[in-house]
Fold:
Amino acid sequence: MKVLILGGTTEASALCRALEDAPPFRPVLSLAGRTRAPTLPAVPARRGGFGGVPGLVEYLRREGIEALIDATHPFATQMHAHAAEAAREAGVPRLAVLRPPWRPVDGDRWTEVGSMAAAVEALGPAPRRVFLTVGQGELAPFRDAPWHDYLVRSVEPPDPAALPPRARCIAARGPFHQDGEHALLRSERIEVVVTKNSGGTAVAPKLAAARALGLPVVLVARPPPPEPPVVAGVPAALEWLRGQAALRGV
Ligand code: NAP
Structure:
């Protein structure tokens, strides 16, 4: 049974690994192609956009895809919508995998905001030392607050043209650990952390480190979730796939 997995997340990679050698499933991983050197699981993979809903419908039909798993990032709203619409049009069963958002615990000093522009505003008029981990494509709004010192961390170096003037960059790929995050925030004398509510464990240690240091965090809230059916993790996605295989008698 040929399964298209829309990836770019730890869940998509874990799902591919679980299906690497699990007949009757034949997984194909699809990546948007934003990361130049992605860590790839040992399954067939393709890269790049499909060309909107019509392109994805055409791909699903041409490749004989029998199930679609949308395991893109919680903030990948366009791909979520395209996946749901294209699957409906092509008559392919689809499931979204959405990791739960982070929730504050005792000691967290979070300000949740609805957009990147609101995150910029939440930093305020006084210069601060900011740890910015919002993804390399979302930095431009911070150019509107050029008086802060930014330490930008992303998987790959961002486009210099998108950076605010007082920014330094670190390219690093998670998972990160609390000791290292704690040491980084301290040595860089960070005063506030800005991030998206991505959820998951790989990049969460910065939040624990901020809590331990009593630092405020500006958190960009989740966009609306993909349409149902949605599950929270890989085990439930595997169960759904087994159900689809049983329905097809494979
Ligand atoms: P998006 O805004 O929802 O998607 C934009 C377009 O990128 C889609 O319409 C599609 O192009 C293409 N695309 C996205 N994911 C794709 C995939 N897995 N395979 C093929 N094409 C894909 O999403 P995005 O924010 O650009 O995210 C792109 C990728 O980065 C995703 O794989 C996502 O999981 C990952 N990611 C996103 C974030 C984030 O915060 N948004 C963070 C970490 C990782 P066409 O319309 O041409 O098909």
In short: The pocket of NAP is lined by residues 6-9, 30-32, 34, 49-52, 55-56, 72-73, 75-79, 82, 135, 196 (CB under 6 Å). The two ends are 7 Å apart (CA to CA). The longest strand covers residues 26-31.
